[in-house]
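Could you help me review a protein record that somebody else here produced? My question to you is simply how this chain folds and whether the tokens agree. Thanks in advance; the entry in question is below:
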Amino acid sequence: MKIALVAEHTSPLPAHKGEPTCGESVHIASVSRHLAKLGHRVTVYSRKDAEDLPGRSRMGRGVNVEYLTAGPHYTLGEHEVSEHTGTFASALATRLGEDTPDVIHAFGWTSGLAALSAARTAEGVTEDTPIVQTFHSLNASEQRAGLPERQERVRLEAAIAGRADAVIVNSADQRFELARMGLPRTRVSVVPYGVDTDHFTVEGGVATEPWKGRREERPRIISVTGLAGGGADALIEAMVRVPEAELVIVAGPAPIELALDDDARRLELLAKEAGVDDRVTLTGPVDRKEMPRLLRSADIYVSAAPYDPYGGGLLEAMACGLPVVATAVGSATGAVLDGTTGILLRSARPEALGAALRGLISEPTMRSAYGIAGADRAESRFTWQRVAAETERVYTRARPQEDELLAAVGDDAH
């Protein structure tokens, strides 16, 4: 198949190059590469967000990225991007007419709007060309986690889901939300986020740089999260209840800029007031090639995020053999088997986090068992190869079958 992946606000190239980046970039880069390995030809269409980007880049055999001009050549926030979706859709329609795909697959609601609009006007794209929509996140789910309400986005997500030929979500929670919007469950496929189990492995070295090495042989707890709204506050407060351990938070701007970052300064002040500043480290972003070594230097992975649509950090930690502690939200509910690969908590209250972490630290046998089970689960269920194969099956089901095409030809003949 010729597959068009539409990702208006995210480029797969940062993930392809191993740079620190968002979960969606990792998803698109990984799925496109593995779809190409299955024999398909993939073109990713993204908004040009930098002056020096070429019009087209090759990302490996069978995968190309095309950058379409729509708005300014710098990174925009989600709702800023939506202001240029009409322009992006027009440019996309032109390219789809020049290189007509067999399947159009959009990631995110603005990409879904662009794909539906472009498909209407692109020459060569017919009603038989299926449009598949992936929602990494739904605002209805975000609201339940206490994130801001975006009523216009809720309406648009329902409309996009209703018009797409198939919908993919990362978790059963998202399928439940779409069912509440009136979308039949049969139209929705749960295809989880994945992990590169060739890169994130149990075997291998550990980070040895000064700040990454253990301090005083303390147990190390690690979290990959955002500095604002990612649960970092609760993690720092939880460290008061785990006096024997250190916490490494992988987040924020580069270390040289941390002193100027408002959220980083707020967290550092919180750690100082709590009396744990000597046991808490903010690293800034870490290259993906370095992440496995850093994860393997830790004893426990923890996520206190109130909402996690990807669960990528959890999966990468599991693949490296770490037991995990996470709040039971979003993709974590499908990734973590409570009592088998880690611990799922109803809330990210510092008391609950502290109790769970303290319990795991005191039980090395349990940590080891969780780590072994987590690595096995990552390898058996969440490889990008399997994610790509399941995505391919969604495409196949969405495309008109041969007997339907023959019937249509027969109708035309009459």
Remarks:
- The mean pLDDT is 90.
